[in-house]
Amino acid sequence: MIRLYSALAVGLIAALLGGLGYMVFVGQGQTVLAQCRGTSISGGGGSIGGPFELVDHTGRTVTEADFEAKPTLVYFGYTFCPDVCPLDTARNAQAVDLLAEQGYDVTPVFVSVDHQRDTQDALAEYVRFMHPEMVGLTGTEAQIRAAAQAYRVYFALQETDDDFYLIDHSTFSYFLLPGHGFVDVIRRDQSPEQVADVLSCFMDNA
User: What pTM did the predictor assign?
Assistant: First the structure.
């Protein structure tokens, strides 16, 4: 198993997210959803999310406005990731399918942090394999960094002399609701069933 976080990454994420995953966060003006939350976010939920402009796997330029109409589960990773990203993305896809069986419609989104290798074609192949409704997003390095900063996502290229480089990155998924924006993060230790339960709670109480 490759090392996913450097010491710097761990420190940065801990500082940014303030013990994410072990306390209950009550959002400003969103106490009706507090019963569904299992996380605490430094600075509040309003500090996560914001404007971005990226390109989807079909070549279409999209912004945050294109995902405001439906519940959306967002994950930042890269297609060359050998272990963590495929597992997390497959978990999200399974959760979306479980929710579909219950009548919920959630869009899974995969945002690449690898602007060099994750071309439109590479993303298209990846998301088609993961889930038929999954949207893949990429862009220039500046566009990707702007989106990552909006969601407080850490990522950093590991130094290497060849094209087989790896990227350290945070592994949270982000759930967005129409009319609310970002409402909670999903940790990678949560099962598809647990993710589906959390997301359905939010959708039932929104």
Answer: 0.81
